[in-house]
Amino acid sequence: MTGKYSRTTHLSHDLSSTISGCVNDVADWMQSNRLQLDPGKTELLWCTTSRRQNRLPTATLTVGSSTVSPVSSVRDLGIFVDSDLVMRTHVCQTVSRCFAALRQLRSIFQSLVTALVLSRLDYGNGTLMPIHLIRRLQSVQNAAARLIFRLR
Question: Which of 32, 68, 101, 141 is 20 to 30 A from 52 via CA?
Fold first, then answer.
């Protein structure tokens, strides 16, 4: 078991060294073309099936003078990619942002109902009127409450 572990560790180290060299070559090319690689925003993602996630190397990668640790997901062009390529992080982030937008819309919708409907109900309600007319106004207020709280 020790020989296999040692061989895997050695291969992992060789792979990390090769990738570091390639990234440094890209950084040198970028610099010669007046571009800059920001090591602070550089992320390392090892991709494999979910069954082999425990075999992924955990060693850091050297980019220039910075070290980059492996992460479980990265974002590129607004899309989150997981190391097992299932897109679980992307779906979770999308759902979270959509529900946040819906909560904001509900708040705006509630403010609109209050401003447009309930303000009209309040106007002139201080006058004396028969109870059957007050009930009609109350039915509008009840409908507005059902609309806001999505009740029947």
Answer: 68
Could you identify the residue written with the tokens 């007046």? 34
- Give the integer Cα–Cα distance in Å for 146 and 151: 5
Q: What is the average pLDDT across 137-146?
A: 85
According to DSSP H, which parts of the chain are helical? Answer: 2-32, 88-113, 119-122, 131-149
pTM of the model: 0.59
Report how far residue 132's alpha carbon sits from residue 138's, in angstroms, rounded to the nearest whole number.
10
Radius of gyration for the alpha carbons in the chain, expressed in angstroms and rounded = 30
Please, how many CA atoms are within 13 Å of residue 49, restricted to the half-sphere of its CB?
2
Residues 63 and 37: beta-carbon distance below 8 Å: yes
User: In this structure, are residues 41 and 74 in contact, taking their beta carbons and an 8 Å threshold?
Assistant: no
